[in-house]
Specification:
mainly alpha
Length: about 100
């Protein structure tokens, strides 16, 4: 699914970049105003930046998914010591006191 988002981000970025270049290059004196050219370039820049941000996020998501799916099963279930964190005895003075501590 992240490849689909990457492709869509690429298409959006390419369209925005094309608007930034083709918009001013195709403007004709007397027909197009400065405002129209600025509007087309602004829309192109917004689309290009949105596509660029989307591509970076899609690549980061893909890397995360691949890292999670290819991790060994033993490393995902238990920490390096082989015990879960909840089975370790608490050290004195660590954490907050329990309500039944007799205060």
């Amino acid at each position: 699914m992240s490849l689909v988002w990457l492709l869509l981000s690429f298409v959006l970025g390419a369209t925005g970049l094309a608007l930034c270049v083709v918009g001013p290059a195709s403007a004709r004196p007397g027909d197009d105003t400065y405002g129209t050219v600025a509007l087309v370039m602004g829309l192109g820049m917004a689309a290009w930046l949105t596509g660029l941000i989307g591509a970076v996020k899609a690549l980061a998501h893909r890397r995360w998914v691949l890292r999670v799916l290819t991790a060994p099963a033993a490393d995902r279930l238990t920490p390096a010591g082989g015990r879960s964190a909840s089975s370790a005895p608490r050290r004195p003075g660590s954490g907050t006191p329990s309500p039944s501590s007799g205060r």
